[in-house]
Specification:
The chain has 450 residues and is α+β, with helices and mostly antiparallel strands. 43% of the residues lie in helices and 18% in strands. The chain contains 16 helices and 14 strands. The strands form three sheets. The protein has a seven-stranded mixed sheet, with helices on both faces. Helix 4 crosses helix 6 and helix 15 (409-418) packs across helix 16 (425-444). The N and C termini lie far apart (73 Å). The relative contact order is 0.06.
C-alpha cells in the first residue's frame, strides 16, 4: 500500500499535533501517542507493505508490533533486563548494563514492561537475601550509587501506573480482551501493585472501559479515570474482596488519608464499600466515585475518613468495616419482624438440602430458618454458613419462619422448586410466604382454587 500526497500531508499534520500535545498528556495517553507517532514514522518513511494474504497478516502484525516496541525506546539496550527476567541472570554484568539502560530511559514517556519485570526480580532477590549469596557485598556497594539512580527513576516514573496497564482490560492490551463471561467469573489477568505495603490487584486500569449488567438487565459502561481493583486477601460486603479506586501518580510510599464510601442501592439499602486511595478530601473522594457511576444506579449514604495506619488495622480483620453493617441490617429488617441475628452455634443443619444450588452469598445475605420450639432448623444457607465459619462470625442474619404460625414443610419444598436452578434466600422466603398464605386461604375457603 503506497500513500498518495494528500494522505502524507494528513499524517504529517497528525504527527505535528501529537508532538504538540505530548507534554500535557497523562501516562496512558502519552504511551498511545508515542506508539501512534512511531506508526506514522514507519508509514511516512517507506514502511509500506504489499497486500497481505490471510496467512501472512498475523506475521505482519507481529513484526509491526516488534518494530513499534523497539522504536519506542530508540538506542536503549533492553537485553540486560531480558537476561535478568528470562534467564534469571542477576550478575554484576547484567546489573551494570541495566543501570546504563535505565539512565537512557530517564526522559522516556513510558518504560518498557521488561524494565518493570527486571526491577521486581531484583527486588525479590534483595528481600530474600538471595542476591547477597550470588554477588559479593563489596561489589554491590560499588554499584550502590549507580543503583540509586535506578531507584530514583522507579519512584519518579510511578512504575505501578505502568504495571497497572498490564491488566487484560487495559486499552494498551495488544492481546485478546476478556469476554463478558470471563469478566463476570473473574477469569482474566489482573495487574498486581503495592502501595504503602497494601497489595492491590488492578482489574481496570486508567483509560480502560469497565462494563457490566445491572440487576434490571440494563447494560452499563464507564471509562476509568482511576485504577480500579481490590485489596488482596480481604473480604468485602458483597462476598468478594474489598474494592478500591487508586488515583494516578500515587507515590509508592503513600501516607495520606484513606476514604471509605458506603454505597447504597436504588432502594436506599446498604450495598457495599468502595475505598478511595490518593485523594485529599471527602469532596474529591465523592467526585471520583460519582465519575464512575450513573447517579440512578448507585449512590452514597456516607463517607468515612481514616489515617493510613487506622485503615491498615481495620482491613487486617476479616470483616473490616462491618461494625456498622449489622446495625444497618437490623434497622432495615425491623419493620416486618421476621429477620434476626442468630448465633451460629445454635443452628440445626440437619434439615439442609445440600443438593440445592444456592446463589453466591454476600456478608449481608441472610439464611432461611424454620423455628420449631427452641430449635432453629436451617432451610437455606449452606454457602453463607461456610462464609461465617471462614470469617469466625458468631452471628448470622436470618429470615425466620415460626412453625407455630402454620408454615409447613410442604410450603418450603414447593417454594424451593419454584425458585428454579439457583436459589436466593430472599426469593425463597417470599415464595414460602406466598405458598403458606395460599394454602391457608384454600383451607378457610375450599372454593378458592390455586
Amino acid at each position: 500500500m503506497s500513500l498518495n500526497p494528500i494522505e502524507k500531508i494528513r499524517l504529517s499534520r497528525e504527527s505535528i499535533a501529537l508532538v504538540a500535545q505530548m507534554p500535557s498528556l497523562k501516562s496512558v495517553e502519552k504511551i498511545k501517542a508515542a506508539r501512534r507517532l512511531n506508526e506514522i514514522t514507519l508509514l511516512l518513511g517507506g514502511g509500506a507493505t504489499q497486500t497481505l494474504t490471510a496467512e501472512g497478516a498475523e506475521t505482519f502484525h507481529e513484526n509491526l508490533k516488534a518494530d513499534l516496541d523497539q522504536d519506542e525506546w530508540p538506542g536503549v539496550d533492553l537485553s540486560p533486563f531480558e537476561r535478568i527476567v528470562r534467564d534469571n541472570e542477576i550478575t554484576i554484568e547484567t546489573l551494570t548494563g541495566a543501570i546504563a539502560s535505565t539512565k537512557m530511559l530517564l526522559n522516556s514517556v513510558s518504560v518498557p514492561p521488561i524494565f518493570i519485570e527486571a526491577i521486581k526480580a531484583v527486588s525479590e532477590q534483595l528481600e530474600s537475601g538471595a542476591l547477597y549469596d550470588a554477588i559479593q557485598v563489596d561489589q554491590l556497594e560499588a554499584l550502590a550509587g549507580e543503583m540509586q539512580i535506578v531507584l530514583d527513576h522507579v519512584e519518579q516514573s510511578q512504575v505501578h501506573d505502568a504495571i497497572a496497564q498490564s491488566a487484560a482490560t487495559s486499552e494498551l492490551n495488544t492481546g485478546v480482551n476478556p469476554t463478558q463471561e470471563q469478566l463476570e467469573a473473574n477469569q482474566y489477568q489482573t495487574a498486581h501493585i503495592e502501595i504503602a505495603g497494601l497489595k492491590i490487584a488492578i482489574e481496570n486500569p486508567i483509560g480502560s472501559v469497565r462494563r457490566g449488567v445491572d440487576k434490571d438487565g440494563q447494560e452499563w459502561e464507564t471509562t476509568m479515570t482511576a485504577h480500579y481493583g481490590y485489596f488482596e486477601g480481604t473480604l468485602g460486603a458483597d462476598g468478594d474482596e474489598l474494592d478500591v479506586f487508586v488515583v494516578e501518580n500515587l507515590p509508592q510510599d503513600f501516607s495520606g488519608r484513606v476514604f471509605v464510601i458506603d454505597q447504597i442501592d436504588r432502594q436506599g439499602r446498604f450495598d457495599e464499600h468502595k475505598v478511595i486511595l490518593g485523594v485529599t478530601s471527602k469532596a474529591t473522594a465523592l467526585a471520583l466515585y460519582q465519575a464512575h457511576y450513573d447517579e440512578n444506579y448507585n449512590s452514597v449514604s456516607r463517607i468515612r475518613e481514616y489515617s493510613l495506619e487506622e485503615f491498615k488495622e481495620r482491613i487486617a480483620q476479616p470483616t473490616a468495616f462491618f461494625d456498622s453493617l449489622h446495625a444497618m441490617l437490623l434497622d432495615s429488617w425491623a419493620d416486618d419482624g421476621r429477620y434476626d441475628l442468630l448465633p451460629v452455634s445454635k443452628l440445626d443443619r440437619s434439615t439442609l438440602n445440600y443438593r440445592m444450588n444456592e446463589a453466591k452469598p454476600s456478608i449481608k445475605e441472610p439464611i432461611v430458618v424454620l423455628q420449631s420450639g427452641s430449635k432453629y432448623l436451617v432451610i437455606h444457607g449452606q454457602k453463607r454458613l461456610e462464609m461465617a465459619k471462614k470469617n469466625a462470625e458468631k452471628f448470622v442474619p436470618a429470615i425466620v419462619f415460626d412453625h407455630r404460625s402454620n408454615y409447613t414443610k410442604k410450603d418450603i419444598e414447593r417454594a424451593i422448586k419454584q425458585c428454579g436452578s439457583i436459589v436466593h434466600a430472599e426469593a425463597l422466603a417470599a415464595l414460602i410466604e406466598v405458598n403458606a398464605t395460599q394454602r391457608l386461604t384454600e383451607e378457610l375457603d375450599p372454593k378458592v382454587t390455586a
